[in-house]
Specification:
This protein has 328 residues and is α/β, with parallel strands linked by helices. The chain has 2 domains: 155 residues, Nucleotidyltransferase, domain 5; 157 residues, 2-Layer Sandwich (Nucleotidyltransferase, domain 5). It contains 10 helices and 12 strands. The strands form 3 sheets. It has a 5-stranded mixed sheet, sandwiched between helices. It is globular and about 60 Å long. The two termini are 25 Å apart. Bound molecules: adenosine monophosphate and magnesium ion. Magnesium ion (MG) binds next to helix 3.
Length: 328
Amino acid sequence: MLCLGIEGTAHTFGIGIADSKGKILANVSRVYVPEQGGIHPREAARFHAVNARRVLDEALNVAGIELEDIDLVAFSQGPGLGPVLRTAATAARALAARLGIPIVGVNHCIAHIEIGRLTGRIHDPVTLYVSGGNTQIIAFDAGRYRIFGETLDIPVGNCLDVFAREAGLSHPGGPNVERLARRGRRYIQLPYAVKGMDMSFSGLMTEAVRRYRDGAHLPDVCFSLQETAFAALVEVTERALAHTEKKEVMLTGGVASNMRLRTMLELMADEHRVKFFVPPSEFCRDCGANIAWTGLLAYLHGVRQRLDDTEVRQRWRTDEVDVPWRGK
Ligand code: AMP
Ligand code: MG
């Protein structure tokens, strides 16, 4: 069985094609880059609509198949930006209707976890999912993916991006902050906010900007920002690991590219003698392959949707999703 998955939640419009054995036949993306400032939802949606056809043709080409060979269409139903989600959903509905094949909506966060489980030969991890739009610590428990901790305000990727913009660094900010942080020497005290199992990054971001404006050495601010934000992420992940007694830790999402975060998390995993895994960067990023594979899992385990059920869900939480493919 071949599934075509469409990703469209934020910057990335992607189409992936997967078969039921877990082989990824194609994974093609285009990424919207705002001219200035942050992401503009309607502009991003327009970018996705304009590029959809080209991405589709390229994906079919890479996979070496015809559109008619597709048996199932999956799409990112949420969470994400409304106009962007609706564009991907419209494309998915049109394809499913034209080909007369079933459609399944996929939760974007869960798709990140499932592609990691596929590519890593890991089975049951505590996942730290960190991106421009999400920050969650997730583990499977009692039939669902449960959120053990999450940000109470902005995602950590957004914290890095906004700080970078305020400090005159180019977008995306994360890689630039990482580059400068390597030259940082002095730790500047910044607000560390872990509240129960949840985290907050907006106060940290504001204070980092203030310190920079007050004349602190930029590499030191970048270094301190990373150390503070990542320590909070590792602390909550560690507590989730201790609580669930899982034997694997996975790091994914765009911020997973960060070598300092990887090192910190790996150190923690080593101390607990558990496996540490980061999926190949192609799959850490938003992409269609994640959606295609998760859509297949859902469909093969009995998930069915009528067109009426395909309305997008901007705030669809990870723990609201039935995951029959993982059993009870
Ligand atoms: P995503 O939302 O998954 O597409 O990932 C994009 C986010 O990842 C943006 O916030 C980027 O700044 C962030 N990011 C990418 N590379 C790095 C890096 N090396 N260090 C920190 N953040 C990064
Ligand atoms: Mg993502």
